[in-house]
Each structure stands twice: as C-alpha cells, then as structure tokens.
Amino acid sequence: MIKQAIIPLAGQGTRLLPLTSVFAKELLPMNGKPGIEYIIEECIDAGIKEIVFIISKKKEMIKDYFYKDKFYQNIIKKKKDQRILNEYKKILKYRKMIKFVYQNKPLGTGDAVLKTRKYIKDKFFLMLLPDDLIIKKNCSKSMIKVHNQYKSSVMASMNVSKKTVSRWGIFKTKKKLNKKNFLIDAVIEKPSIKEAPSNKAVIGRYILPKKIFLKLKGQKKGKGGEIHITDTIQSLINEKEKFIGHSFSGKYLDCGIIGVLLTNLGTPEAPTAKALKPYLKQFLWDPRVVEVPRPIWWLILN
Fold it and tell me: pLDDT tens digits for 23-65?
C-alpha cells in the first residue's frame, strides 16, 4: 500500500514574480483556501498517512502556516468564531501528517526527491507537484489502484495538443494495457513537434520506487544544471523497471497560469475577460469565492 507522499515546494515561482519574491505561491488563495490544501486533501482521500514537504529557507512561511498556534488561540478566545475554530482544527490535523525537509539550492526536482530519502520506508511512494491541480476525480487514488493491480511505478498522463508538446515531458508508449493505462517505453523532456513520439504528456503525479534514491545519488546534472527526475526515471526504464502511464479522469488545472491570471486582476496587465473566461469557468467548483470580489467574477464569467 502507498502510505507516504512527498511534495516539492522549494521552487522559485518565477511565473508569479514579483509576488513570489516575498510570498510562497503555494499559499495563494484559491476559492478561499491555499492551493496546497487541495493537494493535502487529495493525499488524505487517497489513503496517505504521511506527507513530506520539501521547502527552502525562503519558504519558511509554508511551515509557519501550520504552526501559528498562539495566533489562532488568541483569536478564538476573543471572537468565539466557529469557522476559525474549525480552520484551526483542520490545520492541527494536517500538521500531524507533515514532515519538512529543506532544499536551499535550486538543483531540480531530482535533488528535491533525494532530500526525502531518510523518511521513505516503503517500496513505493507518491509524489505530487503542487502546480498541477487535478479536480473532480482523485488522480492519486486512481493511480494507487493501478499500482496495486500491476505492482509497478505509475505516472499520470494527459493528451495535449501536438502544437504544445515542446512545453511538456512526453511519453513514448510501449504497449497499451487497457483504455486508461499503457506501458512507458521512454520519457522525452520538451521535444520538438517533429521529435515528439506522442501527444501524451507527463502530469505532476508519480508513484516511484524507493530504489530511485540509489540512482539519484549518482545522477549527473542535466539541462539547466539541474537534476531532473525524468532522467532518473528513464535510467530505471532502461534497466527494465516497469512504469505505467495512467490517463486520469479528473480535470487538470495549471495553478501557475491560474495564479498569473488572478494576480493581474485590476492591473494594466490584466488579461481580457475573454482570456480569463475558460480558466475561471473550470476553476469555480467551490462556492467560497472570497479572494476576488464576487462582482468581478460575475463580470468575467457573464
């Protein structure tokens, strides 16, 4: 059973600069709560018991978010607000599950994963990238079912437009197992349209084997001077480690794009209503829209 998950959170968030020079993008409110809480809820619903957050010293506020006991206790004494009390209880519940490790130099996702080595006890673990939000259906839960069936590593996949393959890691498929799953022959990072072996893109959900740590320890830096987890995965595939691509059923949202749209509202750089509409329509599944005044949402969506 998959009981542990890791979440890399040490990224610099360059798409949201200058906001991310002082604020962690993962705490950006989305319909009334930080994006990271949606990821935690996905983990809990999938049966995860322990989560390892990989942060940097510049993102200490993520840790602080779960440890503001005095603040909550003082507010609760003064206001007797049930909603605040419920939020505090939820934070306490999350805190019991979470451990923190640090990645203070931006050396890539592979390096971030390696930092969690001492905490991972089982043969396989789950990794979720917080920029990739998947709603409606629990992607992690369905991937764990695939893992239990095939006893192998699993990676989430989504069909993308052939015109955009150079933005993604792209799968070369080996064999179709059924309607939703296929064996992976290779993972190619950001290929050109001509080089792309398919339009099946890697999305930020992975079930990885513990043996990946041995590979990561000796992994050489790749593009941009970083240690890429896809390079390590490819090494394991070359050694006949079985990886399955899983075409998930949920709705995919790029939190980086959503963040850029929301943080530009009301500025000269604000996107047009026409540009915002397709993103916000798919994002408003939660009725608690509090971070943007409701009249603005109404004007954009109507």
Answer: 677 887 776 778 899 999 999 999 999 999 999 998 899 999 9
- Which residue from 207, 199, 300 is spatially nearest to 258, judged by alpha carbons? 300
pLDDT tier, 206 (very low <50, low <70, confident <90, very high otherwise): very high
3-state secondary structure of 268: coil
The per-residue pLDDT for 278 is: 56
- The whole-angstrom separation of Cα 203 and Cα 230 is 12
CA distance 12 to 25: 9
Give every CB contact of residue 58 below 8 A, 6+ residues apart in sequence.
none
DSSP, collapsed to helix, strand or coil, labels residue 191 as: coil
CA distance 160 to 178: 19
Mean pLDDT across the chain, nearest whole number?
83
Degrees, nearest 5: CA angle 27-156-152: 120
Instruction: Give the pLDDT of residue 280.
Output: 55
Residue pair 205/140 in contact (Cβ under 8 Å)? The answer is yes
Token pair in block for residue 242: 């079985």
